[in-house]
Structures are given as structure tokens and as C-alpha cells.
Fold this protein.
Amino acid sequence: MPNTRSGTVSAPACDFDSDGRPNGSAFDVGADEQPGVSGSCALAPPPPPPPPFVAQLYFSTATDFAVPGVTGPFDNADIYAWDFTNFSRVFDASAASLPGNANIDALLVVDSDTFYMSFSRDQGTSVPTLGTVQDEDIVKYDAGTWTWYFDGSGVGLDTNNDEDVDAFEILTDGSVLISTTGNPAPTGSGTPISPTPADEDLLRCVGSFGATTSCTWTMYFEGSDIGLAANSEDVDGVAVSSTNIYFTTLGTFTTTTPATPPAWSGGMEDVWVCDSATTGTASACGSYATFFDGSVNGITDNLDAIDLP
């Protein structure tokens, strides 16, 4: 059989078990040539596997927003991860038996099945085995087991809806940072805090945690020192890495404009970093940068909770 074309399809150069074709002056009949190789038909190596997903940011959304590349249904009590390119879901609220009215508005991720979280619902959120968890509380989910971590009412964060914990971080020394939806007036050692805290501030609680919580309070970061004062500039997500503080806000924000660093601005879907932060009652940032640009990556909803690995 001559080597001919039928239409635009050439006779294959390799037979079904990777012997070269033709073996001799012509092709053999059928799919198998006589043994012997008249060309290189070594099988090509398989393509390399895709790189593993390595999370660079964790977040939850304020609404049931459709996160790109993630299969629905979507829930504002789910937790998602981003690896600089793609998104994935790392916590499924319904699988953890949270009710449909649950909304995570502050979080910390320990590993693939261990999460700390706070909820936004003013009337409380029903959590398996714990009962009603108020919006000033923080709970821990560990491989299906729920426990109390921070009882806001134990330190006075239960007088009004302004004291909803809408951002928190657990520092390496075990102390807890919180920010609230309004101007908080916690109780315990170190109170009243000076200057009077507002929704753009981070307060530090050094104390004991669990179902019974007690605190010594100090001002950790004063948002107004870098120009956060408008209602939209409420800090509603925070993460701390070394001397850098990562923020997200309720809406649009603009920092102040001293000579160094220049002003920085963004929206509710962005995560930005205060590099080389100076903490305390004279807070400052060495520089600013955008860490996650939500609109560029297909997220247009408010990121109302964030964490870094």
C-alpha cells in the first residue's frame, strides 16, 4: 500500500504499539507493522501536573456572590481561597450545618479543617452544639467540632449593634485584635481606651479566652492616624504578617497624603497593606500597596472578612 493521503489526513507514522511506519518500503496492511522501528515512535512524556494550589488569601463575601471558577451554590458564610490566579472554596457553611441566615464577617484560617469565625447577624446565629452565637462573639470550628473562643459579652461588647466584631486577628503571642462595626466601649482592665475607639481602629485584648473571656485592652492601631474616618472606611477585615497589616474596608477608602508615604485608595473588594506599620496611639505606615485587586480578579462584592496563610 503506498503512502497516500485521503483528503487531508496522512497515514500515521506510528502503529498502535509505537513501531515506526513504514517498516520497509511500504506500509503493512492493518494497524500493526512487522517488528522493527523505521523511525522514532517513542511515546511523548505526559504533560507535567499543574502546580498545587497554594492559598495566598482567604476571604468571605458580604453577599452570596458568585466567585469565579467556583461551583455554586454560593453563600456569604462560605470561605474562599485565592492563589494569585484561581479561587477555591475551603469552608462550606451548609456542610458544617450553619443556617441559611449565617454570614461570616470575620475569620481566621488555621488549616484545611480548622477555622475561627464571627458572624454578622444582630439577632445571633444558631451554631451546632453552641446555640445562639452573638455578633460580638468568636467561635472555632475544628473538623466538625464547634467551641467558644471569644465571648464579647464577657468584656462588654454587647450594649448595642455598633459592637459587632467585624474583623479580628490572633497574634503570635496569643492576644486578639478586634475591630467593630461602630464605636465600641469594651469593659475590663485598661478601659476606657484612649483615644476613644472607632470602627476604623484595631483594639488589642490580652487576656483569657473561651466561654469566659477577660481582657486588658489597649489601642493597637488607630485608623484615623492614616486618614480612615469616613463611614465607608470602617475596617471590616484584617490580617497581620510580621510588621505588615492587611486591611479591607466597608467601602471606598483613601489614606492621608503626607510626603511619605503618598496617599492610597481603593474599594470594598480590595485588600491593601500597611507596610512596616507603627502601632499604638501614633499609628503610621511606612508605605502602602494593593495586595488583592478584587475588580481585576472578578470580585465586585464587599470582602467582609479576610485572612492570610
Notes: Residues 156 and 186 are 5 Å apart (CA to CA).
